[in-house]
TrEMBL record:
Superkingdom assignment: Bacteria
Pfam families: Glyco_transf_20
Protein name in the entry: Trehalose-6-phosphate synthase
UniProt source species: Streptomyces triticagri
Organism ancestry: Bacteria, Bacillati, Actinomycetota, Actinomycetes, Kitasatosporales
Molecular function terms from GO: alpha,alpha-trehalose-phosphate synthase (UDP-forming) activity; trehalose-phosphatase activity
A GO BP annotation: trehalose biosynthetic process
């Protein structure tokens, strides 16, 4: 155990900061701070010196930072053998577990679990072991540890073996697969994953639906007593209204709004906005197809609407994610060449990540399209109503976790049903202003009912239990 042992630890694959090596001579390190629910959530405990965030060094810059001893207070980055990491992160976490929980396998992407999978799985175990050992070394006696997500499913069990004194929690940011789908995994691996998670005192999920799916898998694969000793809880992470409103009214966002308005063209044009990391669960291609169908079947919208589609690169080491990005661009180009006119670009597609531009689009959107085939929560659906300047109609997939809280005032769709999605876009675009404003207000209230700080503290208090 180190001298300054931590009383609260968070572990996640991706940490709150990443490093980039500059092209200068000598090469220096540039730190980039990330955002997201966990970063905001942890801010609730203030600058507590006894808190530590353990994360992986993900790129060359991060590795160099670890080698040079560069780091942030309260963050411990671990550099794991690159081959082990590639297999654990790209191979198991983002190719297998992500696909299982989001039910993304389809011909020709059916899984085959052979020797390559077994090698990757051994590396996933090693990856989880490295995290467990670091946490065990850094935690004060009786400390609380909250482990995040599917990259680290085995950590609770492994850590429990090393440190029986800790209070261990795990939180899943993804959906959980239905038991029949989860059973695509080799039996021993499926059981090992569940047992790994059950090493925790408490397991958190974003919705009741995902918590119930996990419980069903445990009962089915491990028997009716599997959950004895582990509590499950539901914490539906909400939007961080304070942060978002302040950030979205800075000058750089106003500049982006002006630039977007120029791309949209005429002042009377409506905008349909979507913002996603580009990966298959987000269902961007079907979203574009629905928009194309709208233009085809409702010609009155031609020249009168622009689709702002921001599809930011994600997990580009993997061919399946890269190919999806190519397909998104292809379909967008096709729509533009079929319907575009000299003064009107039907789809404005942006592929470079730009947070200020995303916020700008939330402020001016008339309609937001959030149509994942499956999603743990989807914060875009919650952030748009909070930031909308003039009210925004939300077209939302019933398969997003956010549907549990937003279905009363969003226009709900089956994400596979392109025709229904096109019709929902039409309804959203046609919604009277007063109705749109009233719905947006109710959506914003529902979206902010559990802000990240409370989301985190609720989990922590539940994990620590009543003070003795
Ligand atoms: C999802 C996962 C997170 C992950 C994020 C970005 O939201 O639940 O754990 O960090 O995607 O994916 P990446 O692979 O870039 O970390």
């Amino acid at each position: 155990m180190s001298d300054q042992a931590a009383k609260l630890l968070v572990a996640s694959n991706r940490g709150p900061v990443s490093y980039r090596l500059t092209d200068t001579h000598p090469r220096t390190l540039e730190a980039k701070r990330g955002g997201g629910g966990l970063v905001s959530g942890l801010s609730a405990i203030g600058s507590d010196a006894a808190a530590l965030w353990v994360c992986a060094a993900l790129g060359d810059g991060d590795r160099e930072a670890v080698a040079r001893g560069v780091g942030e207070p309260g963050v411990r980055m671990i550099a794991i053998d690159p081959e082990v990491q590639a297999d654990a992160y790209n191979g198991i976490a983002n190719s297998v577990l992500w696909f299982v929980h989001h039910m993304l396998y389809q011909t020709p992407l059916e899984p085959s679990f052979g020797p390559e999978f077994r090698r990757q799985w051994a590396h996933y175990e090693a990856y989880n072991q490295a995290f467990a050992e670091t946490l065990a070394a850094e935690a004060a006696p009786g400390a609380a540890v909250i482990v995040q997500d599917y990259h680290l499913s085995l950590v609770p069990g492994l850590l429990r073996e090393l440190r029986g004194d800790l209070r261990i929690g795990h939180f899943s940011h993804t959906p959980w697969a239905p038991t029949d789908y989860f059973r695509l995994l080799p039996d021993d691996v499926a059981r090992q994953l569940l047992r790994g998670m059950l090493g925790a005192d408490r397991l958190g999920f974003l919705t009741r639906r995902w918590a119930d799916a996990f419980t069903a898998c445990c009962t089915d694969l491990l028997g009716p007593d599997a959950l004895d000793g582990t509590e499950t809880g539901v914490h539906g992470l909400g939007a961080d209204a304070g942060f978002l409103r302040e950030r979205a009214h800075r000058p750089d966002v106003d500049e982006r709004i002006a630039a977007l308005r120029e791309q949209i063209g005429g002042p009377d044009r409506r905008t349909v906005v979507r913002v996603d990391r580009t990966e298959l669960s987000k269902n961007i291609v079907r979203g574009l197809q629905a928009y194309r169908l709208l233009l085809e079947t409702r010609p009155e919208w031609r020249e009168r609407v622009v689709h702002l589609a921001f599809a930011y690169p994600s997990r580009q080491d993997l061919a399946v994610y890269r190919d999806y990005m190519t397909e998104v661009s292809r379909v967008a180009d096709e729509i533009n060449s079929t319907y575009g006119t000299p003064g009107w670009t039907p789809v404005v597609l942006h592929l470079e990540d730009d947070f200020a531009r995303s916020l700008a689009s939330y402020r001016i959107a008339d309609v937001a399209l959030v149509n994942p085939v499956r999603d743990g929560m989807n914060l875009v659906a919650k952030e748009v109503p909070v930031l909308s300047d003039d009210g925004c109609a939300l077209v939302l997939s019933r398969e997003a976790g956010a549907a549990a809280e937003l279905s009363d005032d969003a226009l709900m769709v089956n994400p596979y049903d392109i025709s229904a999605t096109a019709e929902a876009l039409h309804q959203a675009l046609s919604m009277p202003a007063a109705e749109r404003t009233a719905r947006t207000e109710r959506l914003a209230a529902a979206a902010t009912s559990l802000p990240p700080q409370r989301w985190f503290l609720d989990q922590l208090n539940a994990l620590r239990g009543p003070a003795t």
